What does this fold into?
Amino acid sequence: MRKMMCVALTGAVTAGLAMSSMAAEVIKIGGIGPTTGPAAIYGSNVQNAMEIAVEEVNAEGGDIQFELQFEDDQHDPETSVNAYNSLKDWGMQILGGTVTTNPCIAVGSEAVSDNMFMLTPSASSQDVISIGDNVFQVCFTDPNQGRASADYISEMELGSKIGIIYNSSDAYSTGILNTFLAEAQEKNLEVVANEAFTDDNSTDLTTQVQACKDAGADLIFLPIYYTPASQILKAANDMGYETKFFGVDGMDGILSVEGFDTSLAEGVMLLTPFVATSTDDLTVAFVKAYQDKTGDIPNQFAADAYDVVKVLYKACTEAGVTADMSASDICEALKAVITSDGFSYDGLTGESMTWDASGAVSKDPRGMVIQDGVYQPMD
Amino acid sequence: MQFLSYLARGISLGSVYALIALGYTMVYGIAKMLNFAHGDVIMVGGYVVFFTFCKGGIHPVLAIIIAMGACTLLGITIERVAYRPLRGASSLSVLITAIGVSYFLQNGAMLLWKSDPKSFTSVVKLKPLVLFGGQLQISAESIVTILVSVVIMIVLIWFVQYTKPGHAMQAVSEDRGAAQLMGINVNGIISMTFAIGSALAAVAGALLLSSYPTLIPTTGAMPGIKAFVAAVFGGIGSIPGAFLGGILLGIIENLSKAYISTQLSDAVVFLVLIVVLLVKPTGLLGRKTTVKV
It folds into this structure.
């Protein structure tokens, strides 16, 4: 009897252990992005969307379950590396980040030495994916954005004299600028003014706008984030300068700046792979889930982030990743799957997205225009 | 015409620097310390005006008066808590404390008001001045800022030269120990200086953000540093010097953006400062003091 008890107890204990290890069968996904700071809109959108996607994945009840931890980096490279280290202490196995370019480059070099798989929703610089073969993007690479913008402007004949205002202290901005200039030359677009500012002297941007005005630019290309863009729109309005504005994905968010007069953004065009007003099933379902959770309309970064989690889920399933694998083993498995010929993903931000070994995604961009305070497809 | 337009923008930016530099130079002249937190008091003033005027919709003048009150209180508190205990300490300790206060204010603002940018609505509701048939346009904000900084400079000079507290300030500035022996309440005078400087910061904040509308917790940092340069440029401790330095700095910055390089404008500004300090170490209007050894 006593022996029986022992066996029963041992059995119970073993079962208990098995249970607890079953419960721990989750793959730990880390996320890093600015939920405060000048680019806060991006990070909070990404965080919310990743949470939604992880809930959906777990609700499917498959073999693969995700656990998400998201850290704030204030769009600051140093803070971002600290966030990365604390996520590693937590036991992160895959990084779904980071959100913005400069921090992503800093974190990327750490992740390369750890061989940690990184899939960034929105850090779009070429420098991000060239850090190592473990870094992949869901968004377009900057060179693609610059090239696509120039193509789009020339194809739709949006402007004949192009002015540019960019941030020379930001890799994202200069990355887009360089390919834009190259492609503009190819397409015979006339660039009449090319003005720069830096993070430190961005208080006053009127001189740059004035220079574009003096040069007679009828379209200003803004490969920058929305905060300085909002200053430029106001400055142009104040000096009575009527021109068209064309932005890239960093312009997304301009309508949500607190206190900003959104009528200034009327007619602003931008290239972005996602619009919340689309009517396809996937977008409608996602926008509803996002609104139920936060009360806000998701932007492109949210859509990118949703795709990040879903791509990771698909890749983990196909690669047979299990929770007891080390981050480095998972990285090797995911790399092999995601670059394989058969792997393709239909997401919010593009159909049949595929990746090559460089880490860049291939999908088509879409032009948007701000009308009546919302983004509308341009074509 | 282009040149005039750049010049006008330069004067406009310069008058904001001048307004900030007046606060710097007051505190330096009397308390003999560099209050690096001055730029961040401007930011706090900006937020107060943002919430009372831009969000709360009260009259802009009333909003600025509330902000002046809030900043005065903040300035006196900072002086009482952070600087007064260090009255006898070396100037290096005070300087480091000032930098600490600056970080404290920035991060406190980040906690309180979050750091996503806010877009400021101008407190000046007037039409821009249009000259030469629309070729030259000067914004009403610029004109108001220039006028306000001139008026404040004149009032400050009058206050320091012709009033009793002003005389006490001069005495404290000249010889703190002797002033105390003559029965002047040195701590009170220094508190008053901080109160005036901080109230000016609130005005500067409202006018800075009316011209350049992005409000984030680090909004005051860079203009604060530039204004410090302006104060040194004009001769730190001198009230007309701060004004002159500010205006010149704004003009140099904008003209170098227009004609040299938009990226190198800061480099040009600091280069000019270095040259001025080499040629005239006390700044443009600084007083030369001979120290007997």
Observations:
- Chain B has one domain: 2-279.
